[in-house]
Specification:
single chain; alpha+beta; four-stranded antiparallel β-sheet; 3 helices; 37% strand
Length: 91
C-alpha cells in the first residue's frame, strides 16, 4: 500500500538539511520510494520540508520508515505526518 509522508522543517535548518542529505538519500534508496522531494518556500529559494510517497506493508511500517529517516533522527523536522495514499493519476 502507498503512504505519503509530509514533513515540515524547523525554521533556519538549511545547514542541517544539507549536512544530513547524503544519509537521507542513501536511506531512501534502500526502500520502495515512489516519489520524493523537498517542499520549497514561496520564492522557491529554500527547502521548507519534504514529501515522500512510499510503498509499505501498513501504517505502522510507514510510520517506522518516517521515524528512522536520517532527517527525522537529526531533528530537522518540526512536524511529520504519515497517511495512507491512493494514487489516481496516472492510473
Amino acid at each position: 500500500m502507498l503512504f505519503v509522508i509530509i514533513a515540515k522543517d524547523h525554521a533556519d535548518s538549511t545547514e542541517l538539511r544539507a549536512n544530513t542529505r547524503p544519509n537521507h538519500l542513501e536511506y531512501l534508496g534502500g526502500h520502495e520510494v515512489h516519489y520524493a522531494g523537498p517542499m520549497l518556500s514561496d520564492d522557491q529559494d529554500q527547502p521548507i520540508g519534504s514529501i515522500v510517497v512510499i510503498e509499505a506493508a501498513d501504517l505502522t511500517a510507514a510510520r517506522d520508515f518516517a521515524a528512522n529517516d536520517p532527517y527525522t533522527v537529526a531533528g530537522l523536522f518540526a512536524e511529520v505526518s504519515v497517511h495512507p495514499f491512493k494514487q489516481v493519476i496516472p492510473g
